[in-house]
Amino acid sequence: MIIVYAIGLALAFYVAWCLGANDAANPTDCAVGSGVITLRRAVLLFAIFVAIGALLQGFMVMKTIDRGIVPRIDVLGAFTTILAVSIWVTFCTWKGMPISTTHSIIGGVIGYGLLTYGVHGLEWGLILMVLVSIAVTPILSIALALGLYPVFKAFFGKISGRLSARSVEKLIKYMLIAALCFSAYAFGANDIANATGLFVTVTKELGGVPDYSAMILLAALGSIGIAFGGLTWGRRVILTGARRVTRLTPLTGLSAEFSNAIVIFLFTTIPFILFGWGFPVSTTYSSIGAIIGVGLIRGMGGVDRAIVTKIAASWILTIPLVALMSAALYGLVSIFL
What does the radius of gyration of the chain's CA atoms come to, in whole angstroms? Predict the structure, then answer.
């Protein structure tokens, strides 16, 4: 099983790469779309702060993925689940669709769990809370973006009488870059589990390392993969989120990015404090929701509904398709191993 574990870790790194390629848009699309920072610089900041978030708070959601939904994931289960996730995320990234990696990993774990433990072996209470959180995430992001925009507009309108237009513009730019960094941190804290969270218990058992040490090592591995993915293949999805859903200005971009960061950070941190499980929510849902929120300021005409419909369709299909794929792969591979 050591060989299967090694291949599984290689796939986890690959999923981290896919995650960076597909989800680098979540913290960066507002800053890039509003034109305050270049795509390359945005992705570099993304890589740095994703790593910080993953190393400091990644364990909160890793615990949920590893042993929250199902009692335990064995080596073969981790391998086939991560394989199913990588296939689906790669396909959607190739198509330029910002699908939810969180949906993919949850679907994969549910598929494995149903086949291995049966319907009654899954922690449906936690699954329900996670699914509700995923559904609520874009709604909160939309509402927060709609609420923050007039606050920021009033603030900058007030100081514009004291500062030059150039100084106000610079302040908005720096605040938007700060929001990007905060959003990337929150992304790393929540989404690192999607790549490597499956392997915490397996690493602990096979490597003989403490639970927290296993999480830190896996977070470091995943951070490198996410950074590499964002730098090498993230352009298409970043530009989809930044320019195709709605047109952004620096002020609307600032409102959307702070909304996205706050929502993801809260879903990572508050449930862990209250229940001991960080909730793996869709950072894609949150980011696109925040962008839709500021787009609604201009009315429904400010949002490209065709693009939103296409994105929503891919989100809805993800959990059942990856669940079926994960269960099928586990059943097939189990015959030979």
Answer: 20
What is the per-residue pLDDT across 281-337, written as a single tens digit (0 to 9) for each? 988 788 888 888 888 876 655 566 676 677 677 778 889 999 999 999 999 999 887
- Domain containing 144: what range? 2-336
| Residue 22 DSSP one-character state | H
Over residues 22-64, the pLDDT tens digits come to: 778 778 877 777 778 888 898 899 999 999 999 999 999 999 9
22 vs 277: CA distance, rounded Å: 25
Separation between Cα atoms, residue 64 and residue 11, nearest integer Å: 20
Read off the pLDDT band of 271 (50, 70, 90).
very high
All residues at 6 or more sequence positions from 280 whose CB lies less than 8 Å from its CB, including other chains? 61, 64, 65, 102, 105, 106, 130, 190, 191, 193, 194
Looking up tokens 């920021």 gives: 152
Q: pTM of this prediction?
A: 0.89
Rounded Cα–Cα distance for residues 314 and 94 (Å): 13
Alpha-helical segments (H) within 100-210: 101-117, 124-159, 165-196, 200-207
Residue-level length of the chain: 337
CA dist 13 and 82 (Å) reads: 10
Query: Tokens 């809260």 identify what position?
Result: 266
Tokens of 76: 């073969």
Number of structural domains the chain divides into: 1
- Residue 242: DSSP 8-state: I
Three-state DSSP class for 71? coil
Q: Report angle CA 195, 322, 22 to the nearest 5 degrees.
A: 45
Question: Residue 96 gets which letter from DSSP?
Answer: T
